[in-house]
């Protein structure tokens, strides 16, 4: 007997619990029909990516252990079709450039508008 495949999922990586909760609620609405996997670390995100078909990963930049740039590189190396969004409260042109160089498809400086997030999610899942 084979295990049924897991549904497609959007993965959110955010170490701040309050921010993860708010973004999870938004993403559940914007990504209707997709499983939402919200985790606190890059390592946990890699486990989720190995288990699900993940068209979209949204990750914070500054996290314990693996930062968002390292995660973006790892994701793009193994799952190049996954859209990667790096968010950060550390807003500098250099960080935006580094995020794109690491393979991120989008860089969203915090605070960002819900409309910005929605547009990226809908485009990635279209």
Give a description of the structure.
By secondary structure, the chain is α/β, with parallel strands linked by helices. It has a single domain, classed as 3-Layer(aba) Sandwich (Rossmann fold). It has 5 helices and 5 strands. The protein has a 5-stranded parallel β-sheet with strand order 2-1-3-4-5, sandwiched between helices. Strand 4, helix 4 and strand 5 form a beta-alpha-beta unit. The longest helix is centred in the N-terminal third of the chain and has 14 residues. The chain is globular, with a radius of gyration of 14 Å. It starts with 8 loop residues before the first strand and ends with a helix. The relative contact order is 0.17.
Summary, kept brief:
The chain is of the alpha/beta class and 126 residues long.
Overall form: globular
The third-level CATH topology is Rossmann fold
How are the strands of the largest sheet arranged?
2-1-3-4-5
The chain-level structural class is alpha/beta
Number of strands: 5
CATH architecture classification name:
3-Layer(aba) Sandwich
Q: Can you write the helix and strand succession as a string? A: EHEHEHEHEH
Tally of discrete structural domains: 1
Unreliable stretches, pLDDT < 50, 5 or more residues? Answer: none
Mean pLDDT, all residues: 95
């Amino acid at each position: 007997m084979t295990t049924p495949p897991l549904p497609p999922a959007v993965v959110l990586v955010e170490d701040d619990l309050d921010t993860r909760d708010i973004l999870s609620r938004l993403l559940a609405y914007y990504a209707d029909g997709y499983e939402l996997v919200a985790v606190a670390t890059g390592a946990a995100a890699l486990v989720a990516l190995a288990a699900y078909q993940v068209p979209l990963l949204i990750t914070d930049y500054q996290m314990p252990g693996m930062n968002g740039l390292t995660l973006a590189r790892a994701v793009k190396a193994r799952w190049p079709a996954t859209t990667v969004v790096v968010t950060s409260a550390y807003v500098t042109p250099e960080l935006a450039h580094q995020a794109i160089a690491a393979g991120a498809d989008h860089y969203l400086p915090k605070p960002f508008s819900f409309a910005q997030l929605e547009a990226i999610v809908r485009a990635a899942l279209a």
